[in-house]
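Field reference: sequence -> structure
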Amino acid sequence: MPRTTLPISDPDQLAYRLLQDSDWAEAGGLATAPAELRVLLTTLFDSPEPLWLAWGRDQKRFFFNDAYLPMLGAKLHGAMGRSLQEVWSDVWADVSPAIDDAFDGRFRSFHNLPLQMDRDGSMKETFWTFSYSPLRLLTGEVAGIFCVVSEQTEQVQQKNLHSRQVAAITEQARDAHLELVRAREQLRQAQKLETMGQLTGGVAHDFNNLLQVIGGSVDMLLHVLDEDDPKQRYVQAIGSAAERAGKLTSHLLAFSRRQSLTPEVFDIRDSVRALSDIVSTVVGARINVEVVLPDTPLYVLLDRNQLDTSLINIAVNARDAIVGQGNVTITLSKVSTVPSVRQAAPLLGDYAAIRVSDSGQGIAPEVLSRIFEPFFTTKGVGAGTGLGLSQVFGFVKQSEGEVDVQSTVGTGTAFTLYLPLTLASSAAAQIPTPHRIANGTGLSVLVVEDNVDVAAFATSALAELDFNVVLARNATDAWAELQRDAHRFQVVFSDVVMPGVNGLELARRIRDAYPGLPVILTSGYSELLASDPNHGFTLLRKPYSLKQLASALAQATR
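Structure field:
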């Protein structure tokens, strides 16, 4: 029997060849098929979408196109023209009611319908989106059904996996969001502290110059007044007030990290041990102080005075937080990693960790983020300046360390200072400062100072002490004086912060050109010195006393 063909666009497609070779076609089914079925088969094979049709209410013969082939899998062999129930026997119980409805003239539609299907010999869950449409003859009789179908197994599984993952990480995501909010707030707080540090540092610099003139003038008056002069007490009162103002300024400088530190190598155990008696006195008899120290030495390169001040400031806050009796514990240990604090990266290396914990009332969370701000305090008016913890923060950060605070309301607070250890194990001996004011007879000093009032004090004070003084208003004038005749000077005394060439750069030039000429630097505020503590020059902090100035000059010219 000659092969019957259909007028389709691509006779070479696999599904059409399977139709030609099917048992149904070989038995004459295609040749005797009604015109409606032939038209439908032509439409089926010319469609780019996955389609199949079933023809005959009783036989339900199964026909499909090339786009549908991948969905058949192992069912492909012998499927063309067979009974739909035979081909899809594994899911027939699930789909037959809908197929019967379609043959009864009602369309049915399904979205991501789950079906347990035989896939290569094992039953697996699959998902399908499809719709059944009745195919009618001109008489109105339903002779078959059309099915538009797509398998959604992979998409549904991915979606379900995603849903499970989302469900699994919902809590973590919520925590991460809260952590991000906290991180943003901590970053904002850090930026605010940095801005406040720049502001307070600038104010402290100008204030130090004023205190220098006030304190220096007090020194000069005390130097010329007789010891029994009744004016002495007024001058001493001015000096005491200036000294207290100087301490406040030093706290501001410590917070701004522009303070010139005087680092030395020492075993931090000795410092904490010696300070424990002072802490016990500060907190009073109602509070028990316990100190826990390691057995091995921990050497640091720090400003010992600033460290002592920091621990005392923390102890004072602990005392004020404890109502009635309580405990303060100071624990010193060695750590190899500093944890992330205020979202900063963890610090690697060896550090001394000083933990000061108390059994006080704790700090409320809304207050905890502000405790290092200068002038912020929860104490009553007149009970504190709000500069103690800002000094702690500035000193530790300038020493390339970190400070962390943990607190629970009603339980207590713990401050932990992380300070870098050093490989050195001893410090150079300190030259004692003479108690008397040194006389400068025969010594010539080049004073470099741009502030008019400070320059006037320095030159007049040194002249009063019989120093020969030459004043230069800036580094350029000072360099010109040296080039004119450097041998007439035994020492150079220079401010650091000056317009143009700064004092530190001038000192380095002098050291290179005139290595035998000592240079003494002075400053109360300098980022240059703070960022380079190992500059190698003698430093006299502002405000300095007349005795300190004369002694520094005398020691430099020995």
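Note: Residues 254-258, 380-385, 427-436 have pLDDT under 50 and may be disordered.
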